[in-house]
Amino acid sequence: MATGFQVTFDCLNVDRMATFWAVALGYIKQPPPKGHDSWEAFATAVGIPEFEWDKMSAVVDPDGGGPRLLFAKVPEQKTVKNRVHLDVNIGKSVPPEQRHDAVQAHVEKLVEAGGERMETIDEHGDYWVVMRDVEGNEFCVQ
To answer: Is residue 92 scored above 80 in pLDDT?
Structure first.
C-alpha cells in the first residue's frame, strides 16, 4: 500500500497561493472542520489568536483522489529555482490532436489568475508550457 502525502509550499501569502493552485488543479480550498461555518470560527473555538489566522491554508481535490496542498507562511521570499516542481497534466486527458488547445486554454486561465508564462516547449510530439505561480514557483502545464 502506498503512503499518503501532501505537498507543502512555503509562501508569503497563503490565501493568494491557495486561490491560484485551486484554479490550476481544479481543487477547492479545504473546508473548515464539521461544526464550524468558517476557519475563523474554528480558530476562535480552539483558541488560535487572530494574528495567527493567516499562517496556513490548504487546497484539496474535491473528488478525494489527489494530494492535499498546504501553504505555510514564511517571512522570506523565494530566492532560487525550485528543485522540485509540479506538472499540471491538463492535456493528458484529451486526444493528442486537442492537447495543444487544451494546454493553451489552461495556461491563459492561469495567467488571468496571476501566473506567468515563461517558455513553451514543442518537440518530438510533446508540448508543455513552463510557468511561474503567483509567488514565482516554477511548474509546467502539459
So the answer is: no
- Whole-angstrom distance, CA of residue 86 vs CA of residue 140: 7
Q: Model-level pTM?
A: 0.93
Rg (CA), the chain: 17
Query: In Å, how far are 19, 34, 57, 96, 127 from 102, measured between CA atoms?
Result: 21, 37, 29, 10, 11
Q: Are 137 and 20 in contact (CB under 8 A)?
A: no
Decide which of 3.50.50.60, 3.20.20.70, 3.10.180.10, 1.20.1300.10 is the CATH code for 87-141: 3.10.180.10
Q: Which of these, 134, 127, 138, 30, lies nearest to 86 by C-alpha position? A: 138
Tell me the C-alpha distance between 80 and 64, whole Å: 32
* pLDDT band at 24; cut points 50, 70, 90: very high
* 3-state DSSP assignment of residue 45: helix
